[in-house]
Design brief:
Chain B: It comes from Limimaricola cinnabarinus LL-001. The complex is a heterodimer. By secondary structure, chain A is an alpha/beta fold. Chain A contains 7 helices and 6 strands, in the order H-H-E-H-E-H-E-H-E-E-H-E-H. Chain B folds into 2 domains: 82 residues, ATP Synthase, domain 1 (Sandwich), CATH 2.60.15; 48 residues. Classes of the chains: A alpha/beta, B alpha+beta.
Chain lengths: 290, 145
């Protein structure tokens, strides 16, 4: 049985842990708000962009002159998995679920005899995948020093990916990130970015437009930007998801610490009572002996 | 027909403007164009330049670094990679923008040593960006041009 002093120390230490988790939860809540605002602000651009691209892609896509970014290399042999996770832990299952999704995809592809290359964004995912898939790593993007993800960060990643595509290093690129649904739910998502894929294009919509320069030139100009836009959207979703996951993880931790403190306090009171009772018995039996 | 159009300027990070305009002057890749109400629906890519929006309260200028514009009979949407209201473009911001193109140009020079195409493209973009600075009275500090 731990001594009274030990118990007291433990209660003090759990109390300070609770203070820390509580503070982290509040910081995460504030950051979540900002991340959500940023994601919100980025939406109009992404939506317009997708609409225009979808139209262009559907009108040019079928022709032979379609750019490689849209039509693909004609092969599906080498897959690049861009795994985007957080730079920090203590955010529940956030990093784990993205890494798991990537791991499942990687093992599927390997089983089909494809070549897999992995580009990691964020330190945590890299650590998790290193043991099993370390030999497939081709690069890493470090965002530790980035306080708020900006479009420039997405552009850097996109440039890296596009450079590899131009150098024929892979045929298909997929990004892995967690889509933010709410504080409790973040959905790990795999999204193919190369060859580009756009939804909801209506041909009738775009046939009306004049293009300056031609459709194909515009498409060739916009496709690389589309990659950056998609990566940027994923980064923002990821940032919001990370904070959401951290917030609920810290909320749980704070509650658990509270329960722990209650339990320890009861134990402390019991043993104090036992000590007092013991002393009384000693005094009384001592008095009786006289 | 109404003689105004809805003008929206969005960058990947934020929405910069949404106003009712009478006239929008757009720096297109193939040359400047002015969109007014009733313009033929057009999609054009942009070069680095000055985007001018004329509305009831006056004229707003924005420095943009590229992107594209979607012009309709009663609306203009400009999707710019990077855009700043002219007032926000200090020497420092401007130098950052110029440097972005300058480094792309240097990069192209090393990567495409024997292909003039991509190098010329980046050179043109850089020249456009430098021209903007001269236009709004900022020093591009690019002597090697």
């Amino acid at each position: 049985m731990p001594s009274l002093k030990d118990l007291k120390n433990r209660i003090a230490s759990v109390k300070s842990t609770r203070k820390i988790t509580k503070a982290m939860q509040m910081v995460a809540a504030a950051k979540l708000r900002r991340a959500q605002d940023a994601a919100e602000a980025a939406r109009p651009y992404a939506e317009r962009f997708d609409a225009v691209m979808a139209g262009l892609a559907s009108s040019v896509g079928g022709s032979d002159g379609a750019p490689r970014l849209l039509a693909g290399t004609g092969k599906q042999d080498v897959h690049l998995l861009v795994v985007m996770t957080a730079e920090r832990g203590l955010c529940g299952g956030f990093n784990g679920s993205i890494a798991r999704k990537a791991r499942i995809r990687a093992s599927e592809l390997l089983a089909q005899g494809k070549t897999v290359k992995i580009l990691t964004v964020g330190k945590k995912g890299r650590e998790m995948l290193r043991r099993d898939y370390g030999q497939y790593f081709v690069g890493h993007v470090d965002l530790t020093d980035v306080k708020r993800v900006g479009y420039a960060n997405a552009q850097d990643i996109a440039r890296d990916v596009l450079g590899r595509f131009d150098a024929d290093e892979f045929d298909v690129a997929t990004i892995f990130y967690a889509r933010f649904q709410n504080v409790i739910t973040q959905i790990p998502t795999a999204q193919q970015i190369i060859p580009a894929h756009f939804e909801g294009g209506e041909e009738a919509d775009t046939a009306l437009y004049d293009y300056e320069p031609g459709e194909e030139e515009i498409l060739a100009d916009l496709l690389p930007r589309g990659v950056a836009t998609q990566i940027f959207a994923a980064l923002l979703e990821n940032a919001a998801s990370e904070q959401g996951a951290r917030m609920s993880a810290m909320d749980n931790a704070t509650r658990n610490a509270g329960e722990m403190i209650d339990k320890l306090t009861i134990e402390y009171n019991r043993s104090r009572q036992a000590v007092i009772t013991n002393e009384l018995i000693e005094i009384i039996s001592g008095a009786e002996a006289l | 027909m109404a003689d105004t159009l809805q003008f929206d300027l969005v960058s990947p990070e934020r929405k910069l403007a949404s106003v009712t305009a009478t006239e929008v002057r757009i720096p297109g890749t193939d040359g400047d164009l002015t969109a007014m109400a009733g313009h033929t629906p057009t999609i054009t890519t942009l070069r680095p330049g000055l985007l001018q929006v004329v509305h009831q309260g006056g004229t707003d200028d924005y420095v943009i670094s590229g992107g594209f514009a979607e012009i309709g009979p009663d609306s203009v949407s400009v999707l710019a990679e990077r855009a700043h209201p002219r007032g926000e473009v200090t020497q420092e911001v401007y130098e950052g923008m110029v440097e972005e193109f300058a480094s792309a140009h240097r990069d192209a020079q090393t990567r495409f040593e024997n292909e003039p195409g991509p190098v010329d493209d980046t050179a043109k973009l850089l020249a456009d960006m430098v021209a903007v600075g001269t236009h709004i009275g900022l020093d591009p500090k690019q002597s090697n041009f």
